[in-house]
Amino acid sequence: MSELRFAVYKHKLVYDEDQLLSRQMIVLKNQDGAIVGWTDYHKYARSGKTSYARSLYSGQDKRCTMVCLFLNYVFFDRYHIKKLTDVTAIMVRDFLNDYGLCRLPGDDENTHRGKSTVDACISQIIDFLDLMLKDNPKSKMKVNDLYRKEKVFSKTKRKYYDKKVPIFEINYRPNNKKIFRDIPEGAFQIIMNEIINNHRNILMLAALSAFAGMRPSECCNVRREDSPLGPGIIFEKVDGEITNITIDILEEKNLRSDLLSVGGIKKERKQKVYPAFIEPFMDCYNLYMKYVENKPYETNYGALTNTSFGKAYTYNAYYAEFKKVVKACIPIMLESDDPKIVNYGHLLQENSISPHILRHWFSVKLTLYGEDVAGLMNWRGDKSPESSLTYLMNKSELEKQYKLVSDEVFNYSLWKAGKING
User: Fold this and answer.
1) First and final C-alpha spacing in the chain
2) CB neighbour burial string for 254-271, b if at least 16 within 10 angstroms, e if fewer
3) Is the separation of the CB atoms in 167 and 146 below 8 Å?
4) d(Cα 355, Cα 315) in Å, to the nearest integer?
5) CA–CA separation, 195 vs 341, rounded Å?
6) How confident is the model at residue 422 (pLDDT cuts 50, 70, 90)?
7) 89: domain range?
8) CATH code for the domain of 295
9) For residues 204 and 210, is the Cβ–Cβ distance under 8 A?
10) Do 207 and 348 reside in the same domain of the chain?
11) How many CB atoms lie within 10 A of CB 390?
12) Domain-embedded: residue 179
């Protein structure tokens, strides 16, 4: 393997006082991680429909990371080309197949990439090369060597669009490993109780996923009600009672003095707490706000959830803390009288879960409550219906698994009693 590698360099700056701009650049680094060369390849790491200016924002980093895999493959790992215009269709075919079959350097028998991940890679590499070829008409490869266009109907936009399809076949490695995310109700109670009793610093991050369906990285972007950057949580009251809670994640703002990004927002929006969960959400909120009284936080930003150092939680820091929660919950689950919870505890000894499990629990509850595709998409903040359809297609199985006996979607009285009794 070459001592040189293509890598993503992120340059961050703040504009308009609170807006965080993260520009992605593709650079060359040596084996010590030092930058030894700069490229302009990042200008092609975008969709052909996306302007270059828009491609500079934080959403571009996944494309640049994928492109770096490809560049390292054709420059250093297999073909050793000298310039990008020397790329051929055979090289692209081999990379995409090795990516889909998990045969890239560093892959092993435990590596798996789902079909949606491979399809995203195909789309991003074709977009990258399409823009490069248009900018360099004397390249060895031509557009016709790379892809053809097919008319595809979009259910969300209700119209046909041209899809770029590679002219060669791409293979995938079959996935024989079960996706480990389903969580018994009792296990959810144990996890929430552990967070409340021993990890209250991440309580609101967990509550935002479990009761508002937000992605973990989006939860890290939430601001306090009194944040100088604008209220991140808005409470609506009628006769002194909270009737509506809205979370403002319309923009990814800078929430740390060190300019470190706390995590991305997949869909900018104002997200409401699901009505059935307002009471448990408020209970968590009040517990948390009492917990953080007189604790340090950066008042210029007003992030809702902060580390012991007073800086906004990043997704990576949240994930690390959540792993501690799961580790502490395993012995509790193994001592349960419920065989399902005991079995789940055994599974956790061999499988890892992330904070995303709480969003999954939220989605299951809404499915059992009777939400349709549009409802699930709205409450989950989805851009496309695929994820929501997955839950609805498995609704009958979920009903058997959770054994619903009423319209109740969340046994709050049981959870609250367990929380109070510790």
Assistant:
1) 54
2) bbbeeeebbbbbeeeeeb
3) yes
4) 10
5) 18
6) very low
7) 5-166
8) 1.10.443
9) no
10) yes
11) 12
12) no
The domain total for the chain is 2
Q: Do 268 and 119 fall into the same domain?
A: no
Distances from the Cα of 99 to the Cα of 75, 106, 108, 118, 127, angstroms: 16, 11, 12, 7, 17
pLDDT digits (tens, 9 = 90+) for 247-299: 999 998 999 998 888 988 989 999 999 999 999 999 999 999 999 999 999 99
Token pair of 178 as six digits: 């079960």
Helices (H), 136-257: 143-146, 185-198, 203-212, 216-219
Using pLDDT thresholds of 50, 70 and 90, give the confidence band for residue 398: low
Q: What is the DSSP letter of 277?
A: G
| Cα dist from 294 to 226, 262, 289, 290, whole Å | 15, 23, 10, 9
Residues 306 and 380 placed together within one structural domain of the fold? yes
Domain boundary at 104, 131, 166, which?
166
Kindly provide the b/e burial profile for residues 157-166, where b requires at least 16 CB atoms within 10 angstroms of the residue's own CB.
Answer: eeeeeeebeb
Higher pLDDT among residues 132 and 364, named by residue: 132
For 18-61, what is each residue's pLDDT tens digit? Answer: 666 778 899 999 988 899 999 999 999 986 555 444 444 444 45
Residue of higher predicted confidence among 245 and 263: 245
What's the pLDDT score for residue 229? 94
Shared domain check, 210 and 154 = no
Selection from 236, 240, 121 nearest residue 129 by Cα = 121
Same domain for 252 and 370, yes or no, is yes
| pLDDT value of residue 22 | 74
Q: Pull the structure tokens for residue 308.
A: 């012991």
The answer for residues whose C-beta is within 8 angstroms of residue 303's C-beta and 6 or more apart is: 220, 222, 223, 224, 227, 255, 256, 262, 297, 311, 312, 313
pTM: 0.71
Same domain, 276 and 377: yes
Nearest Cα to 290, choosing from 193, 207, 200, 420?
200
Question: What gap in Å lies between CA 291 and CA 379, rounded to an integer?
Answer: 28
Residue-level length of the chain: 422
Which tokens go with 415? 């959870």
For residues 145 and 256, state if they share a domain: no
Structure tokens at 317: 């820091």
The last residue of one of the domains, among 166, 196, 229, is 166
Q: With contact defined as beta carbons under 8 Å apart, do 356 and 213 qualify?
A: no
Average per-residue pLDDT in the chain?
Answer: 86
